[in-house]
Amino acid sequence: MESSHSRDRNTLLKNIQNIIQENFPQISMHGGSAEIINLNPADGIVEIKLTGKCSNCNISPMTMELLRERLPNLVPEIQEVRVGTNNEQWEPSSDLQSSENKQKPF
């Protein structure tokens, strides 16, 4: 049986995914994807990895900055967005890593 914590987390995850798809169409339009790799609702932190063509796109830094600025305004539960690409020496925060937190790209 799914706990209310899991339901709330899954609802928040789907909400974030939908908002990224609706408000950042350039990610998929340019052949990239955004993968939520960690979500910590208790701390309001989400970690996103831009993959595919985003890894080599020269406007990825602007997309990452927009995600950092806009997502907390669009999703009240999110206080901080950490975002990177496959090309960076970038690892998810160890304090957020767990098999429960890893998500598939959308």
Q: How is this structure best described in words?
A:
This protein has helices spanning 4-23, 26-29, 60-74; strands spanning 32-40, 45-52, 80-85. With 106 residues, the chain is of the alpha+beta class. The protein has a single domain (4-85), classed as GMP Synthetase, Chain A, domain 3 (2-Layer Sandwich). The protein has a three-stranded mixed sheet. A hairpin with a 4-residue loop joins strand 1 (32-40) and strand 2 (45-52). The radius of gyration is 13 Å and the shape is elongated. Residues 95-106 have low confidence and may be disordered.
Layout: helices, strands, pairs:
Blueprint: H1 4-23, H2 26-29, E1 32-40, E2 45-52, H3 60-74, E3 80-85
Parallel strand pairs: 2-3
Antiparallel strand pairs: 1-2
The main sheet orders its strands as 1-2-3
**Could you describe the largest sheet, including whether it forms a barrel?**
3 strands, mixed
- How much of the sequence is in beta strands? 15-25%
CATH architecture: 2-Layer Sandwich
The poorly predicted ranges are: 95-106
Shape: elongated
N-to-C order of helices and strands: HHEEHE
Structural class: alpha+beta
Taking Cα atoms only, what radius of gyration do you get, to the nearest Å? Answer: 13 Å
The count of DSSP E runs of length 2 or more, i.e. the number of strands, is 3
